[in-house]
Amino acid sequence: MVIFDCNGVLVDSEAIAATVAAQELTRVGFAVSPEIVARFFAGRRSADMLADIEAATKRKLPENFATTLASATLRRLRTELRPTPHIAHALTWLRGPKSVASSSPLDRVRVSLDACSLLRFFDPYLFSANDVARGKPAPDLFLHVAAKMRVKPQDCIVVEDSPAGVAAAYGAGMMPIGFVGGSHSAPNLGAQLTTAGARAVIADMRALKSTVVALRGW
Predict the structure, then answer these.
(1) pLDDT single digits (tens) 46-76
(2) β-strand pairing of 2-4 with 157-160
(3) Which residues contact 90 (CB under 8 A, 6 or more apart)?
(4) Distance CA 72, CA 43 (A)
(5) Which of 7, 84, 100, 139 has its CA 20 to 30 A from that of 29?
(6) pLDDT, tens digit, for every residue of 151-184?
(7) pTM of the predicted model, to two decimals?
C-alpha cells in the first residue's frame, strides 16, 4: 500500500498555509514570518504548532484562535489551492491500494482533495493525526493507518515532503519516499528528507511509479 501525505505532496498547499498562519499569528501579536512557520512546523499538526508557540513565548494565544486559523486557511485553500503537478497522472497509473495520512483535520483534507479533483482516488481512506495521541514525527498516525487498512507496516510505502513526516514513516517501519517538488521546497530539503530516513527522493510525480517499482518491485 502507498500512503500519501496531503499538504505539499498531493496538493501545493504549504506556502498558502504558512502565509495564513503567519498573518493570523501576527494579527494577534505573535509576529512571525511564513518562512519561520514553514521551517519549524511543516508537516506537523496545527495544535502542536500553537502549543509550541505558546511554550516558546510564555504567552497564551486568544481563545478560539485555533478555530479562527482553521477557518482562514480553508477560505484561502478553496480559492487558491492547486494540485501538485502531474499527481493525477501518478495516481492513475499507480497500482494497489492508496490512502492519505495528514497532520491536518479531515475537513481540511477533504476540502483540499475535492478542490483539486483528487478525492476520487482515496475516498474513504482518509486519516488525520487528530485521531491519534501523537502527531508526526511520532509514528502513531502511520501505524493507525496500517491497522485500519489491515496492512503490515513493512508492506507500506509513504510519500512525504517534510522531515517530520519522513521520520514518522521511518519510525513506523515503513519505506519513505521524499518529495521535493512543491513550490515551498527549499534547496536543502532533499538532504533533510534523506537524513530523516527517506529511501529515495523525487522532484517530479511522474517519477513516482518507477520509484515505487524500484523499491518494492510492484
Answers:
(1) 899 999 999 999 999 999 999 999 999 999 9
(2) parallel
(3) 205, 206, 208, 209
(4) 18
(5) 7
(6) 999 999 999 999 999 999 999 999 999 999 988 8
(7) 0.85
